[in-house]
Design brief:
binds 1,4-dihydronicotinamide adenine dinucleotide, Rossmann fold, 7 strands
């Protein structure tokens, strides 16, 4: 059995993934704000440090895969702090523990919104600036959520083939779901106007919103021993939304 770290394990995609991996006989260290083995708030530097501390202690210093799933779609700086900095500090902070695995893997959860319109200034600050400046921009920028997911996918592509990752034998990928039936989506769909905007913004010709276990299956594959050759990719699990929005991509 392998040891998997799953952030956002208390709900939705993270919960479904943790459950699937446990059913397959693996050890799962879940991390979340509540209802998890490791309680940590990924919106703050202190919370991110306690994630690393908690996982180091729970795992005994070795993990085989890290799945950075936790994320929110709320207005403003918290979304940037959790979706981007929370995910990146999870991946980089746990890298030393991955080095002790014979088949280390990392997967983050991006989004179909990573190809939606975005805020250029915020994207640049996320990728190259200070967190404080990015959070200030996130307080006033329009499409913060989409920008954090674009930045996350881009970060993965930029780091995948560096000495720290490919050089250390660690594949680094993302899954970009379309609309998935979770608490996050339910909250957004509560408002009919928002629901209509979201459905129009991410059209899914192949079947519409799906259950979180479908995303869990792909996350488990990417984080499993069998994935020895794919890295730097963002895989769209989106019912065709990426094709509908972007058409030809090569
Ligand atoms: P969810 O709301 O069901 O689960 C998210 C989990 O993250 C919750 O358990 C929550 O407590 C945790 N979390 C939130 N803030 C946190 C923090 N500061 N520190 C630690 N944990 C925190 O949402 P869902 O849909 O399962 O989302 C999982 C990921 O999938 C997110 O990154 C989201 O952006 C992404 N996603 C979701 C889509 C959807 O349609 N549901 C579509 C595309 C991407």
């Amino acid at each position: 059995p392998r040891t998997y770290v799953v952030t956002g394990s208390a709900s939705g995609i993270g919960q479904a993934t943790a459950q699937l991996l446990k059913e397959r006989g693996h050890r799962v260290i879940g991390a979340d704000l509540h209802d998890a083995e490791v309680i940590a708030d990924l919106s703050t530097a202190d919370g991110r440090a306690s994630l690393i501390e908690g996982v180091t202690e729970a795992s005994g210093g070795r993990v085989d895969a890290v799945l950075a799933v936790a994320g929110v779609d709320i207005a403003g700086p918290a979304t940037a702090a959790i979706n981007y900095y929370g995910a990146i500090s999870t991946m980089t902070g746990l890298r030393p523990l991955l080095l002790n695995s014979p088949a280390p893997r990392v997967v983050a959860v991006s989004s179909i919104t990573s190809v939606h319109p975005y805020d250029e200034e915020l994207l640049d600050l996320l990728l190259d600036g200070e967190e404080a400046a990015a959070l200030r921009r996130a307080a006033v920028a329009g499409p913060v959520y989409a920008t954090t997911k674009r930045a996350l996918s881009r970060w993965i592509r930029r780091h995948a083939i560096t000495p720290d990752w490919a050089g250390a034998g660690i594949p680094l990928n993302a899954v970009a779901p379309g609309l998935v039936r979770t608490e996050l989506l339910k909250r957004l769909f509560d408002d009919p106007g928002t629901r209509q905007r979201i459905e129009a913004g991410s059209p899914m010709p192949l079947g519409g919103p799906y259950e979180p276990v479908a995303a869990a299956e792909l996350l488990a594959w990417l984080a499993g021993e069998q994935n020895g050759h794919m890295t730097g990719q963002t895989i769209f699990l989106d019912g065709g939304a990426d094709v509908a929005l972007r058409g030809d991509s090569t």
